[in-house]
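Lecture 7 notes: from sequence to structure.

We start with a single chain of 278 residues. Read the sequence below before looking at the structure.
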Amino acid sequence: MLLLGEKQELVVVKEVTFGVYLSDAPDGEEKVLLPRKEVPEGTKQGDVLKVFLYKDSKDRLIATVREPALTLGKTAVLTVRELSKIGAFLDWGLEKDLLLPFREQTSKLQAGDSCLAALYIDKSSRLCATMKVYHYLEKNSPYHVGDQVNGRVYEISENFGAFVAVDDRYTALIPAREVPSGIKAGDLIHARVTGVKEDGKLDLSIREKAYLQIDEDAENIMQVIDEFEGVLPFNDKVSPEIIKREFGLSKNAFKRAVGRLLKQGRIEITENRILKVK
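Now the structure, written as tokens:
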């Protein structure tokens, strides 16, 4: 059986002037062409070659001995070569670029951008790329709670949070309550593992442990107070939504930092204001 989008070993069953035909058995009925320019020197009928199968510009199945950056069901970081009316075309190491349809993009791309993508077969039996890689990432990461990791944000959900591919390979999530303002798909992050689910998925936080983060949060709050000319038009009982919008913090993190500033004598809290002490 000839497998689109995968590497496999096939037998040379026929030689022609423009290449060789390959099949999965010496007497196999299905055949695919390996163009002459890609046939290894000295190849003869009966030899076994390891090739990758994709489709050419005329939508015909074709073989290549080149190494693709991506195979079916796997993920890789690819570069956008150009944009078109139907999507972005990605460089994946083969003669024909790989289409990433607009509907499969999770962020706006430009030529030269890098993106994490997976390879799938669309409804027209063609190979395409997708940035919606959740179902393609691995869950057997070597990481534990407390480990520091690097990852790539590939999708943002208001309900769940920021979906991250750790090492561009393992599935992880920054829960919605922990997502800092301004984060977007495509961002590279450094984070701390805060949980490992039973199925192997990782929970992450870009923030340090609370006792280490308080001082940084406090300084950020002071910066916002200065931007409001020394007076915040609300106190520490403000809604979590406003805290998230103005500071990018959770309610608990905000209250801890405000408590630190209060203890240091840098702010005063009234019935409906937070004031900078001059």
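The mean pLDDT is 90. Keep this in mind for problem set 3.
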